[in-house]
Specification:
- With about 475 residues, this protein is α/β, with parallel strands linked by helices.
- It folds into 2 domains: about 270 residues, Aldehyde Dehydrogenase, Chain A, domain 1, CATH 3.40.605.10; about 190 residues, Aldehyde Dehydrogenase, Chain A, domain 2.
- The chain contains 15 helices and 21 strands.
- Helix 1 crosses helix 7, helix 2 packs antiparallel against helix 5 and helix 4 packs parallel to helix 5.
Amino acid sequence: MGTDIERMYVNGKWVLAEGGAAFDVLNPADQTVVARVANGAAPEVAQAVEAAQAAFKEWSGLAPKDRGRFLLAIQELMEERRDELARLITLENGKPFEEARKEVQFSLGYFGWFAEEARRMTGEWIPSPQPGKRYWVFHQPIGPVAAVTPWNFPATMVTRKIAPALAAGCTVVLKPASATPLTALAIARVTQDVGLPPGVFNVVTTNRSRLVGTELLTHPFIRKIGFTGSTEVGKWIMEIAARQIKRLSFELGGNAPFIVFDDADLTAAVEGAVAMKYLRVGGQSCICANRIYVQRGVADRFIPAFIDAVKRLRVAPGFEPGAQIGPLINEETRAKVHGLVQDAVKRGARLVAGGHYLTEGVYAKGFFYAPTVLLDVTDDMPIAREEIFGPAAPILTFDTEEEVIRRANATKFGLAAYFYARDMTRVVRVSEQLEYGLVGANDAAGYTHEIPFGGFKESGLGREGGHEGIEEYTEVKSVVVSLPS
């Protein structure tokens, strides 16, 4: 990519930051500089928000079907550029290239889903209690939206916010994570190439996140904030937004339990646990399995099979054929994971796989960590209470269904939960009692475009995907008409 600065996308133009400020994007597999990117601040935020405000009237006035045509064109062009986008994801995020390709394929599906949902934003005609009056209710786009996205899914986290916003008739200013801005800029290029009108979608890149966040989130033209990230930052945004009563939707941290009952299909449960713990960005996902609970009657069969499967996982730089787990995003993340593992061992957990940095050969310059399994973990250990965000699996045992539900729910988080059981009455019972926004019963694939996704408790507000996803970007208006007598 050379020494050129990658520019931001504001009002249909590619712009530098004031004074030519820029920052480096590093490849977490070897710490090489992938690109220098424009480092935006208050002036660029103002330009982007003003552009979104100016474009809003015309964009929101388009027929939903016509907005949908733009979204379908974006979907098609993203599919054409899938490998190019996936390559950027692997370069800046580190995840294996095949995993990145799957992410792009999934992410572009949000444009197709919401292009169709735009046409189904129907209202209501309310039977009138008075003969001389008529009442109707309809949805209108809320206005310009600020979207703030994390680094772990550089394509999906962007499209899951901008697709419903654009479909509803909103305009968007996106601030992508400073670790992974290149994918967002490539998506902006796609929107430009399909002819999306200037100002409808803007991308401000920066590593001055707190400064730019404050400028963007408090701008009076911004009517709605969509954010994915940590619960702590979500609380900070909520405090700022409270001053202007801005609408919020948040997907925040998780602490997903993965429960294996004694009637589970153990082969499927092992496969599902490995997939949901290690094979989504190496465990750096809000919906990753965080605590694995195994019923005592099957522990002696499940645990050895799980450990064997983990030891077979291939950790490698993302472009190496057969890579299953890439590097962690940075040293801070790797150190946090290692700290939780060491703390658990100090408190009496048994380390049976991994538990160390990978530093030899191809691993030398990257942030690699060995896939880790810990036994004899207890609920009071930080590794079972905090979001791990890395390839370490604490295993806990339990005796009864009632006990494991109580333990699984004993957290401030409530994003995703998984369990394996064959008994259908148990499947229904447990699904209903787990206090989580997404429950996988004998399933570790996660969500799809057609269903709403979001968290209970401190894991979030609102929903993304499903028909609920577009409603988050609308206001409901009631109209009362008095008819002349």
